[in-house]
Design a protein that fits this description.
With 149 residues, this protein is of the alpha+beta class. The chain has one domain: RutC-like (60s Ribosomal Protein L30, Chain: A). Helices cover 23% and strands 25% of the residues. The protein contains 3 helices and 6 strands; from the N terminus they run αβββαβαββ. The protein has helices at 4-10, 68-86, 107-114; strands at 25-28, 41-44, 47-53, 94-101, 125-130, 140-147. It has a 6-stranded mixed sheet with strand order 1-2-3-6-4-5. β4, α3 and β5 (125-130) form a beta-alpha-beta unit. α2 (68-86) crosses α3 (107-114).
Length: 149
């Protein structure tokens, strides 16, 4: 039978915590300070996490753009593109999206617009969910994860 000292000698040693192993986290405000309780984008190392984007624009006076799911999806994607550009990334660096739809019957119409923002055959991984309601009475909200250059 082995003794406690012999058994401990067989266990791999745990590496000591290193500050280099702790990712650098940056909460980004590409449009300046906000009163909302979330960050539009958070950088963790080379990963960029975007908050869900709605189909809002300055011309929509604080609400979503008119015109239904296609117009709203286009505005959502333009908003994503704009946030990415402001923080040094682009649509071709998006690796994952999550789509929230107020009505899953609008999935196909949303897809028709969504796919035009990516190179065919290089679409990000994606999940889509039906939601019982979205902020601002929106039809679609999309959040993304991108890799910084």
């Amino acid at each position: 039978m082995g003794n406690a000292a012999g058994q401990d000698a067989k266990k791999p040693a745990r590496p000591a915590p290193r500050s280099a192993a702790t990712p650098d986290i940056e909460f980004l405000q590409p449009y300046g300070p906000t009163t909302r309780p979330f960050s539009p984008a958070v950088r963790v190392g080379k990963l960029l996490f975007l908050a869900g984007q709605m189909g809002t624009s300055p011309s929509a006076a604080g609400g979503v753009v008119p015109g239904g799911i296609s117009a709203e999806t286009k505005q959502v994607m333009e908003n994503i593109k704009d946030v990415l550009a402001k923080v040094g990334s682009s649509m071709d660096r998006v690796v994952k999206c999550t789509v929230f739809l107020a009505d899953m019957k609008e999935w196909e119409a949303m897809n028709e617009v969504y796919k035009t923002y990516f190179q065919a055959g290089r679409y990000p991984a994606r999940s889509a969910f039906g939601a019982s309601g979205l902020a601002l009475n929106g039809r679609v909200e999309i959040e993304c994860i991108a890799v910084l250059p």
